[in-house]
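In response to reviewer comment 3 from the previous cycle, which asked for concrete evidence that the modeling workflow produces usable outputs, we include below a single protein chain processed end to end. The sequence was submitted unchanged, and the resulting structure tokens are shown without manual editing.
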Amino acid sequence: MPIKLMAASRRRPGLTRAEYQRYLEFYHGTIARQEPIKIKSYIQYHVIDGAFGTLADATHQQVAERDAVVELSFDNFRDMMRALEPDTPSAASQDGKFFADECTNIIVMAEEEEIPVANPIPRFNPGLGIVSGVGALKVMHYIMRDDEVYREDYYQYWREAHEEALEKAPYAREQLRRCVANKRCRINDNDGAARKHFKMVDPPVYDMIVSHWYDTIEQAGAFRQYVEALQASSRRFANWSKSFYLYTKQIVIIRDTPHS
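The workflow returned the following structure tokens.
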């Protein structure tokens, strides 16, 4: 099974979001294409909007604001480690300081679990999805596990709460085209190479990022309906004050694929 490395970053001081995203796509993306490493796919997700914490919070409990997520897929762990620890320092690792606030980077090494949806994207879908079978709006939901919940229980409790939330959010159930749970691999516990590559300092740990696809940005309200139902679950499994979600636009850098 391929392994993914998902890195969420925010722009460095002095840059607008547009400047940061332009640099990330056209300059940093070009560097990545030129690196002599085995990347199965490299997709950038440029943030359109997002929410951090809950409406009940008086203030933010941690730095969470993000401007993009990059998703690197590899055929195996060895290829990923070669990308993170090349024989000579990579141009990509040296380039981050020019556009990102590197110490606040958040990385997750993850494996995918496809979650069934009621209404996958229609066969006739002109112009809605950038890639066949994938909606144009991708919502990335970073869910912080409650400290008192074991990780395996957390995954089970989320799945139960997810199904319950979709029943209580009919607009979301109708409009959701695809759902993937990106579960944190145990190899992420030994993330020294990733910390060095991405220059992180004490990053928060997320055990799961759930990706939701909708046809267009107009369906963003469907996710809001869903997440409110999810947070209202009687099952305690998440720290919602340290969770966040991002509405994103997909930018393909390496290898266009229907499963990015």
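Residues 256-260 have pLDDT under 50 and may be disordered. We consider this sufficient to address the reviewer's concern, and the full set will be provided in the supplementary archive.
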